[in-house]
Amino acid sequence: MKEQMNTWLFQGNPARFDIDSYLGEAIDEIRWTVVQYANEIAIGDTVFIWKSKGADRDNAGIVAECQALTVPWFDASLALSVSLDPAHVSQARTPHFESHIHII
Predict the structure, then answer these.
(1) How far is CA 84 from CA 16, 51, 91, 96, 99, in A?
(2) Beta strands in 1-104 (DSSP E)
(3) Each residue's pLDDT tens digit, 20-54
(4) Which pTM value belongs to this model?
(5) Residue 83 CA to chain centroid, in angstroms?
(6) Considering only the top CATH level, what class is 7-103?
(7) What gap in Å lies between CA 28 and CA 82, rounded to an integer?
């Protein structure tokens, strides 16, 4: 019996992260921070990268189609870096996981 593959939507907010440059510099693989559903993401799942509106409301939407190469893993350095940023203090209590994804 074939396992069901899931599809995920990962958000990139251009007001907080230069998603266009990050994707433009990527060869074929990127890392992405996952804050929800980390225990449900599986190798082979489809991932769409969605650019939110930010300040540029005309360029929002799906900007990449990807495939999960790893299951998310906990990266303590990510949690620490988020907790030190006063603008994101509310997220400091949320575990942050990292995942490698392949750009299709």
Answers:
(1) 15, 25, 10, 14, 22
(2) 7-12, 29-34, 46-51, 61-68, 73-74, 97-103
(3) 898 889 888 888 888 888 889 999 999 999 998 86
(4) 0.74
(5) 18
(6) alpha beta
(7) 26
